[in-house]
Amino acid sequence: MPATFASMPDLIGNTPLIKLEAASALTGCTILGKAEFLNPGGSVKDRTALGIIRDAEARGQLRPGGTVVEGTAGNTGIGLTLIANALGYKSVVVMPHSQSREKIELLDLYGADLRLVPATSYSDPNHYVHRARRLAEELVEKEPNGAIWARQFDNPANTDIHQRTTGEEIWQQTEGQVDGFICAVGTGGTLAGVSRALKGHNPDITIALADPQGSSLHNYFSRGELEGEGRSITEGIGISLVTDNLRLAQVDRSYQISDADALPYIFNLLRQEGLCLGGSSAINIAGAVKLAEELGPGKTIVTVLCDYGDRYKSKLYNPVFLENMGLPAPDWMRN
Ligand code: PMP
């Protein structure tokens, strides 16, 4: 019998490009979303998790029974934990407790050794990234089978997997007929990897950043100052530092996107196009519309549909939460 059966890590990547009908009609462009929510862990971060684990294995840092430690807004932890289960590793996940209840419950269910920490600024030594680094340093000493700190913000294996897979897939799927790409930044791995792949094929493709309020990157790219104002309910995106992965990105322009502008896109997407997505996808689609308006009709713009909306039922899809955050909920959600 031919060996054509898949195992869990084989399910990661090769996601389809979906035409976003309303956004395309609005702009006269073809706006396409890379359906990353179809990865087995439900997000774009499965790719990063697999890339980092495979890189550590190749370097001999991780042996069967070894441990992967990471600080994460949730999705990388989910990907790492599922892949760890499939490949015979353990996972330790450090996460701010401000993240959605659903992501915390999933991590628990999947078997992560979950350490919830207060949501503090990056300069605080108790920030989840620093806590993860210290934990990994302790485990490296103790674990006979090896332990790694996945280090998604600065680990070049993150950009590398997006360059080799996400970016190449977009080029192949559009047969090179792509004029622009835009996405938000959590670690910068997606933006860096896809920008390098697409610019490598055609340097004229416009690469843009969609930045939520409260993040410092829009100001950084538009006037060189790392500062941000306001806040966003979106999870996993928006940062106030330039990571090693982001430094690898080739960015032509950037847009600041408010939640109030972005959220209607995914609320409409659910009710009119049957896709239930998370908040970072809303920022990405709103950004794609701005980029389309700037490039003009007839162009093809690709963005990323990062994760499923059901992991934000208690927040993004909860009218009481939205009201408390001063954000409008659509009528159908309130009834
Ligand atoms: N959307 C969501 C929901 C995420 O969790 C993340 C990663 N934290 C991103 C987008 C951003 O991806 P990247 O880390 O590649 O910048």
UniProtKB/TrEMBL annotation:
It catalyses: O-acetyl-L-serine + hydrogen sulfide = L-cysteine + acetate. Residues 10-307 form the Tryptophan synthase beta chain-like PALP domain. GO terms for biological process: cysteine biosynthetic process from serine. Its EC number is 2.5.1.47. One of its GO terms (molecular function) is cysteine synthase activity. Gene3D superfamilies: 3.40.50.1100. InterPro entries: Cys_Synth/Cystath_Beta-Synth, P-phosphate_BS, TrpB-like_PALP, TrpB-like_PALP_sf. Keywords: Amino-acid biosynthesis, Pyridoxal phosphate, Transferase, Transit peptide. It comes from the Bacteria. The keyword Transit peptide applies. PROSITE patterns: CYS_SYNTHASE (PS00901). Pathway: Amino-acid biosynthesis; L-cysteine biosynthesis; L-cysteine from L-serine: step 2/2. The keyword Lipoprotein does not apply. NCBIfam families: PRK10717.1. PANTHER family: CYSTATHIONINE BETA-SYNTHASE. This is cysteine synthase.
